[in-house]
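wait is this the right file?? whatever heres the structure
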């Protein structure tokens, strides 16, 4: 069976993005949704900004004060790159790394909303009301894996 390769390093050193029209349509709305969510205190963001010092609220608060704005800026910049390049056929390494960050953040937020754990299985009953969200969660993980493989040397 031939392995589907959605992201491929080219001889020129950039990356070919081999996404179908349907995949691009699905992905197109996600960065904007993530950007909107980043501006809130939604509990699904906890995995994007986990407490550094869960046992010491004062120290954790100081840590957040020092680094949260920088982390937020990085996440928002990655979202902007993904939005701007969603229809691109080729991406630079920096652009693909931004995609990787956004895919990871999207997957973490969605996994938190779905309460996915390490023990969760991909066998979701078709009558589950969240079956489409689970499908998106697993698709994002698969695409993230494709990006990691393309970025890996060799």
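ok assuming it is, sequence goes like this
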């Amino acid at each position: 069976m031939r392995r589907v390769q959605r992201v491929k390093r080219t001889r020129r050193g950039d990356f070919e993005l081999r996404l179908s029209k349907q995949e691009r349509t699905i992905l197109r709305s996600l960065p904007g949704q993530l950007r909107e969510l980043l501006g809130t205190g939604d509990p699904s963001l906890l995995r994007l900004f986990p407490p550094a010092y869960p046992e010491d609220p004062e120290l954790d608060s100081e840590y957040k004060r020092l680094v949260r704005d920088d982390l937020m800026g990085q996440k928002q910049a990655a979202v902007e790159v993904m939005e701007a390049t969603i229809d691109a056929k080729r991406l630079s390494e920096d652009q693909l790394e931004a995609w990787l960050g956004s895919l990871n953040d999207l997957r973490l937020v969605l996994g938190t909303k779905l309460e996915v754990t390490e023990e969760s299985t991909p066998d979701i009953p078709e009558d589950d009301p969240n079956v489409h969200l689970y499908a998106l969660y697993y698709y994002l993980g698969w695409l993230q894996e494709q990006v990691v493989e393309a970025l890996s040397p060799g």
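Residues 7-151 form one domain. so i think its the right one actually
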